[in-house]
Amino acid sequence: MTPEQIELVRRSWSQLDAHREDTARLLYGRLFELDPGLQALFGNDLQAQGTKLMATLNVVVTHIDHLVPLLPPLRQLAIRHLDWQVRPEHYDLLGRALLDTLSNGLGDTFGPDCRDAWGAAYAELAEAMKAAAYPGDQGG
Fold first, then answer.
1. 84-91 own/partner pairs: CB under 8 Å, 24+ apart
2. DSSP annotation of 76
3. Whole-prediction pTM value?
4. pLDDT tens digit string along 70-112?
5. Between the CA atoms of 108, 2, 31 and 133, what dihedral angle is there, to the nearest 10 degrees?
6. For residue 9, which of 19, 35, 62, 101 sits 20 to 30 Å off, Cα-Cα?
7. Domain boundary assignment for the chain
8. How far apart are CA 121 and CA 114, in angstroms?
9. Closest CA to 29 of 81, 87, 104
10. Which CATH architecture has domain 3-133?
11. Which residues contact residue 137 at a Cβ distance below 8 angstroms, ignoring those fewer than 6 apart?
């Protein structure tokens, strides 16, 4: 990621930081619109899961200019997600839901450059997680 992309991600995240609970709710709502079957993977405690996801995103955004130390715990998280039947395509759906949620939450400030920056950040993390969880899946 370029320094400009890093700045765009940080600046846009700071606009949503005070609204983490709403952002999580909207993100999961969008995810379930994209694939209603995913709702069964989350059980009844979606609020707690949303809190965890937003905290993870906050850590990633905070350290986006130096992600290497975050990769081992994120890889372990991906391996744990196998117990919950998470498949490679679910990462792609979550990425799409994230970008849609950011677009809705940020409005005009989420222009093409900001979308590209978030897409690059998410792709880097998702690919590392998928590689850890599905080491033999060249397409995942």
1. 84/41, 85/41, 86/41, 86/133, 88/130, 88/133, 88/134, 88/137, 88/139, 88/140, 89/140, 90/35, 90/38, 91/126, 91/129, 91/130
2. H
3. 0.91
4. 999 999 999 999 998 899 999 999 999 999 999 999 999 999 9
5. 180
6. 35
7. 3-133
8. 11
9. 104
10. Orthogonal Bundle (1.10)
11. 88, 130
Q: Where are the alpha helices (DSSP H) in the chain?
A: 3-16, 20-34, 46-62, 71-81, 88-106, 112-133
Helix, strand or coil, per DSSP, at residue 111: coil
Q: Which two tokens stand for residue 95?
A: 């990425």
